[in-house]
């Protein structure tokens, strides 16, 4: 087992001396992260991102952890699976961000780790960069012991008769409980001290001793190594905003036992419930009950069971009231959505327009809203030559086919994000992609993808940060609506048949990786691409019909920028590209 601890540097301590490495074991290792911020370093909500920057899978964004608010010792539940092959030279970059006030993400700092050295050597030190020298980061690389079970566990848990940890001066206070699920570490059986890795953490319920937490979904490989009998520990804590949560009780169980203990007498079935215990004054005491309201296994990305669980929890009358309220909100948002139809796919020529900012791009939709509504009413919105364009298809899906339980409850930004990804789907002929995906499903956009590890990635706030669809048969031009994905950091669409880049590509000021190699791009590269000042990797090689000048981009990018293009051709110029074909 590899452990990394840091205090200015990263040190890897392998208690066994060497981790066993097997060739071609896809997802054979998983990386878990936690951190400890110094008292003088104030953090609002921290999360970490992991990206492969060297090796066969260079440029692969492994994803991001959840956001943990107001904690100086965040212990992230999200783990990252690595496709590790010895001798491949895989290097992973870990970055920590502060999601300030839920609106902007500030990068605190980062570090780079060579996975093979972590796996084979007893110790290694890696220098830090940025403000991360003020932070201790703990990483762990564990060998996965994958079982045969696939899919997701969809579960719903309720607490009963919880011991009150916050009675207050007059006995009127109540605890704020949340629960955490941990899996037993594979090496724990060989030692006297049990080691548990957190894999899921619920929301906290304020002032409640009988909390009904939200239903949740977790992949079986991540939850229990695909083994339904693998030991799990469910621990309930009393939430503290400073991160010093007080344990209320715990129980050791497994996925199989959770399925056997599902409540059969309503949501207060104490006979089937687990008893929480905690050591008090030298003996184990009962501190409450945990009712398993749902514990079913479904395919990855399935959301139907979750919606059924919510309906059972809320009750028919209450659910109807929420639907009515949601429909009212949706009617208010509908004009804004219709206004988005004006974003028609643009010609793939050199962009000579002034710089487009996020604010001006968003204001374009609002400014033309009244005109769009008036023209739409006069001409008949879903008729004529626009009836089959991607924007109209996306709007029609959003208003008539998408699940009301999602559309009516999403915020405006979530709705725009959902619309933009739907336009992307139709613009690239999503109905004819090879391999099935959950695109345009009722699930959150963050869960759109497939069983092959590609699809959409989001940050802890639910904002799209990347989408990855290698060799999936995408055709057509990328739509301008991807400019609505303001937090987008990576576009990974190599080995498809994409023909054009929108001129608004320069609006994606957070974009770091653009992978469009081995497509069928034609025409000029949009001039606005020079505005991508945060771009770190550009791969547009093997597009023989693509022309243009990338030198304006070269003058704006960072020194460690890596570019690959067909720059040996006289009609494509790129002085900063390190790989010219």
Description:
The protein is of the alpha+beta class and 581 residues long. The protein has three domains: 2-143, Immunoglobulin-like; 152-314, C2 domain (Immunoglobulin-like, Sandwich); 317-580, Ribonuclease Inhibitor (Leucine-rich repeat, LRR (right-handed beta-alpha superhelix), Alpha-Beta Horseshoe), CATH 3.80.10. 19% of the residues lie in helices and 32% in strands. It contains eleven helices and 31 strands. The strands form six sheets. Strands 1, 2, 3, 4, 5, 6, 7, 8, 9, 10 and 11 form an eleven-stranded antiparallel β-sheet that branches. It has a seven-stranded mixed β-sheet with strand order 20-21-23-25-27-29-31, with no helix packed on it. It has a four-stranded antiparallel β-sheet with strand order 15-12-19-18. α5 packs across α7 (369-379) and α8 crosses α10 (412-427). It is elongated and about 80 Å long. The two termini are 43 Å apart. Residues 1-27, 302-321 and 341-387 have low confidence and may be disordered. This is C2 domain-containing protein. Keywords: Membrane, Transmembrane, Transmembrane helix.
């Amino acid at each position: 087992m590899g452990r990394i601890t840091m205090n200015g540097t990263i040190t890897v301590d392998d208690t066994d001396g060497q981790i066993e490495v097997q060739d071609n074991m896809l997802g054979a290792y998983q990386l878990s992260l936690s951190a400890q911020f110094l008292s003088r370093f104030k953090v609002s909500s921290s999360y970490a991102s992991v990206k492969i920057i060297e090796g066969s899978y260079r440029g692969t964004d492994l994803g991001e952890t959840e956001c943990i608010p107001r904690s100086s010792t965040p212990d992230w539940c999200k783990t990252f699976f690595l496709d590790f092959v010895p001798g491949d030279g895989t290097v992973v970059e870990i970055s920590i961000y502060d999601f300030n006030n839920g609106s902007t993400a500030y990068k605190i700092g980062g570090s780079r780790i060579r996975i093979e050295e972590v796996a084979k050597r007893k110790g290694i030190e890696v220098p830090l960069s940025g403000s991360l020298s003020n932070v201790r980061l703990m990483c762990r690389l564990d060998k996965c012991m994958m079982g045969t079970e696939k899919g997701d566990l969809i579960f719903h848990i309720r607490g009963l008769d919880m011991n009150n940890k916050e009675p207050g001066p007059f006995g009127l206070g109540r605890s704020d409980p949340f629960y955490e699920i941990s899996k037993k570490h594979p090496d724990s059986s060989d030692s006297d001290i049990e080691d548990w890795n957190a894999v899921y953490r619920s929301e906290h319920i304020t002032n409640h001793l009988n909390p009904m937490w939200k239903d949740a979904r977790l992949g079986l490989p991540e939850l229990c190594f695909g083994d339904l009998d693998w030991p799990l520990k469910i621990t309930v804590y009393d939430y503290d905003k400073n991160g010093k949560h007080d344990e209320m009780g715990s129980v050791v169980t497994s996925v199989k036992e959770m399925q056997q203990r599902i409540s059969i007498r309503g949501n207060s079935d104490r006979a089937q419930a687990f008893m929480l215990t905690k050591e008090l004054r030298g003996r184990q005491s009962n501190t409450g009950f945990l009712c398993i309201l749902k514990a079913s296994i479904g395919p990855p990305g399935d959301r139907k069971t979750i919606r059924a669980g919510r309906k059972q929890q809320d009750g028919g009358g209450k659910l109807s009231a929420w639907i009515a309220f949601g429909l009212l909100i949706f009617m208010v948002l509908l004009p804004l959505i219709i206004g988005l139809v004006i974003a028609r796919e643009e010609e793939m020529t050199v962009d000579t327009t002034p710089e487009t900012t996020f604010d001006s791009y968003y204001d374009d939709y609002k400014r033309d809203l009244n005109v769009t509504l008036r023209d739409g009413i006069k001409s008949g919105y879903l008729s004529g030559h626009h009836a089959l364009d991607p924007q109209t298809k996306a709007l029609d899906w959003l208003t008539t086919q998408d699940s009301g339980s999602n559309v009516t409850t999403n915020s405006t930004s979530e709705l725009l994000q959902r619309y933009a990804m739907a336009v992307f789907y139709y613009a690239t002929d999503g109905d004819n992609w090879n391999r099935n995906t959950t695109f345009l499903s009722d699930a959150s956009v963050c869960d759109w993808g497939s069983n092959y590890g590609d699809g959409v990635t989001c940050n802890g706030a639910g904002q799209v940060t990347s989408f990855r669809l290698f060799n999936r048969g995408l055709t057509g031009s990328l739509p301008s609506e991807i400019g609505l994905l303001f937090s987008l950091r990576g576009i990974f669409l190599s080995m498809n048949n994409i023909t054009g880049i929108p001129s608004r590509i320069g609006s994606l000021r957070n974009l770091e990786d653009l992978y469009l190699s081995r497509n069928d791009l034609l025409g000029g590269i949009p001039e606005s691409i020079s505005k991508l000042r945060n771009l770190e990797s550009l791969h547009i090689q093997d597009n023989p019909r693509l022309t243009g000048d990338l030198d304006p981009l070269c003058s704006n990018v960072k020194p460690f920028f890596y570019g690959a293009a067909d720059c040996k051709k006289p009609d494509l110029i790129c002085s900063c590209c390190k790989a010219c074909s």
